[in-house]
Specification:
Ribosomal Protein L25, Chain P; 119 residues; five-stranded mixed beta sheet; 2 helices; 36% strand
Length: 119
Amino acid sequence: MRILGFSKRWEKLEQPTFTTFRFKRRDADWEVGETVQVVYKPRRKGGGDKLGIAEIVSKESRLGAASDDEAREDGFQDCRDMERWMIKTYGEAKTWQPMNKLTLYWIKANILIKGIMIE
């Protein structure tokens, strides 16, 4: 099972279904139906905090920025705020590469999802 890492504890992770934008992978791109382990700060010593298991329920290929609504859903103020974060995190050249908008559904969560634990 592959790891889907997050460097910030986004509010969206407390929803039963959440989205994230990821760059396409050259080795094995993310696929609908794939089960992933969601981890906060996976590169930290000890492997980070395991937040739970989620399934990718949809995947949309993208070239370019997200809409303002998508950026807000993803935890940003608007698409410009998201773009600034992407440039700061990955560098300007990387932000022009193809991306995937992934929608995931929690199968098992080690965090509270709308006040309940999903097991």
